[in-house]
Design brief:
Length: 129
């Protein structure tokens, strides 16, 4: 199931995973900050599915910073490809599940961040366009 989802949404998964890792690094955030940011975006996209426009913002400033950077990445991705809200929501839920799976439960833990850095490394300068 995971493999099929990643194959079908490879561009979204790669882009948002890399954006999430970059945002966590920039904000000096921990896994729980990422969890809060992702949960907030999932709630926002779920309300969009019902026809309402209501943006959920985290109280935590680290999570809010991550969310802001993810929203910018989603907007940029939407400029280069057709991006449906349902696909963004599915990708966010996928990342949410991966975060839960890799979070070590420590208050200041960064196991999920380490996972992102390992499996979604920064592109080498020769590959960046």
């Amino acid at each position: 199931m995971k493999e099929r989802f990643v194959e079908e949404h490879e561009q979204e998964v790669m882009t948002l995973s890399l954006a999430l890792a970059r945002a966590m690094e920039h904000e000096k955030a921990v896994d729980l900050d990422a969890r809060e940011a992702i949960e907030s975006l999932v709630r926002t996209y779920r309300t969009l599915q019902s026809g309402l426009i209501y943006e959920t913002r985290p109280q935590n400033p680290y999570a809010a910073g991550i969310q802001e950077r993810l929203v910018k990445s989603i907007e940029e991705l939407g400029k280069s490809m057709t991006l449906r809200d349902v696909d963004v929501l599915a990708t966010l839920v996928f990342l949410q599940r991966i975060e839960i799976q890799h979070n070590n439960g420590r208050l200041r833990g960064r196991a999920f961040f380490d996972f992102l850095r390992k499996y979604f490394p920064e592109p080498s300068p020769s590959l960046q366009v």
